[in-house]
Amino acid sequence: MKINREEFSWAFYDWANSAFSTTIIAGFFPFFFKEFWNVGVEPELITLRLAIANSISGLLIALLAPFLGAWADFSFGKKKFLTGFAFSGIFGSMALSFLDSGSWQWASFFYIIASIGFFGGNIFYDSFLPLVAPRKDLDRVSNLGYGLGYLGGGLLLVLNVLWSKYPDMFGFSSTENAVRGSFLSVGIWWALFSIPLLVFVKDKKYTKKNRANKNNPHITFLMILRELHKTLKEIIKTRTVFYFLIAYWLYIDGVHTIIRMAVIYGSSIHLNTQDLISALILTQFVGFPASLIYIKLADRFGVKKSILAGISVYVFICIWGSTIDSSFEFYILAGIVGLVQGGVQALSRSYYSRIIPLEKSAEFFGFYNMLGKFAVIIGPILMAISGYLAIEFLGNADLGTRVSIVSVAILFAAGGLVLWKLPDPDNGE
What's the predicted TM-score (pTM) here? Predict the structure, then answer.
């Protein structure tokens, strides 16, 4: 697989920042937030505090994403924005390692700062894809990014888990200090492996308007709002872009619901923490080769059919997942999720890159990422309502839990149906 230096440098940023999503978001932050920064606090209050922290960061990015994208395109500043958000994420991650027991307010604050840095940076990272890769290579480069993200994030997570299990072996005085070291390692990893992107990926392919605005110190909020309004009108008028964003919002809500609710679901069927962490690691390492395999699928069958295939697998995951009752089956399910998770996300990004204007890529990806952040709204509500109704009418709590996971299949089916009716850009439609 041939790839040039700029393409690899872009993809390698996924290796860098995925450490945050694996070690901090999915791995140690929820555990440390409960056991250390909220020691002695009622579980219900801990859950509320964590939910508020996640909601604040998600809502801020969702609301700011289109505006930030418009500003970056208007001022020719994608790389400056990416750098700024990345280093705020790095700072927030490292700051977590210095907090004392009971400091849940500061833990929440720095977690929000780091999360905004991670998700905000991804707006501009994604928008570089159509600039660094020609149209024929979008799938290959996008999937390489996700594959490297799975591998890099998985490797650091394994190392951090080993630190926490065997602190003495790695020179830590306690498990607590090992976890502190894990937060610090995320920042160092993120900063170190961001260097190729910062050095070799350039802002380019700008239009006459961008060139005029590049050194304009008087870009105003009103100017950005006008530009944003134009782009929104353009999205609504462009049928393929508008309906793809609807499809994406539906099925990516399902993807994110599976990611975020998997641990809760696993706990509800009495799996222990070690099994859940091991399943997460398995997903990461299956995701790396699977993302690369998806490149071949897209080359052979086209990007739209490959996304639809992944969505179909997710429908199967929801249905079969409702029947499992052992850790072995949960591991198999995690492996299947790893087979399609990165491919669906990567090809969605490359499909979208094909149908948007290059000169406004950050602005269009601002809306794309906004929908990604507003995802995980319908899915959990759907799970809660369907589970409640099943318990209410069937009188069986276990059955209610299993019905709730099946209900997520509705999102995949609806999103897949909308996508199925859209043209396939590989065929020039």
Answer: 0.84
